[in-house]
Design brief:
The protein is an alpha+beta fold. It has a single domain (about 1-95), classed as 2-Layer Sandwich (Alpha-Beta Plaits). It is about 30% helix and about 30% strand. The chain has a four-stranded antiparallel sheet. Strand 2 and strand 3 form a beta hairpin. The two termini are about 10 Å apart.
Length: about 100
């Protein structure tokens, strides 16, 4: 199992549509990445008076290889094109987390 973490950050003026992200975007991710082993997607919305993270998305794949294949597949462009439909966050970071 491998987990890809996607973080959107910004400031108090950053627009972020939580409903679209957690429902529409995750459904699109499942459609695009199921064949690469995407098992689940979860959304977390941190709160901190001093922080700037808008969202944390955790995408669980059956393997690390599946994450890499999914990110290289042509349908990933559909997911990237959807980002503008839920945020104007200036920074989107992506990391692969493995057990230690």
């Amino acid at each position: 199992m491998a987990k890809m973490i996607v973080v959107c950050s910004g400031d108090a003026s950053t627009w972020f549509d939580r409903d679209h992200y957690a429902n529409n975007h995750f459904e699109l991710a499942k459609t695009c990445w199921a064949e690469y082993g995407l098992e689940s997607a979860e959304a977390f919305f941190p709160y901190s008076q001093a922080g700037n993270w808008q969202s944390i998305g955790i995408y669980t794949f059956s393997s690390e290889q599946g994450v890499h294949e999914a990110l290289r597949c042509p349908s990933t462009k559909l997911l990237m094109d959807d980002v503008k439909n839920f945020t104007d966050a200036p920074v989107v970071m992506r990391s692969l987390f493995t057990e230690f």
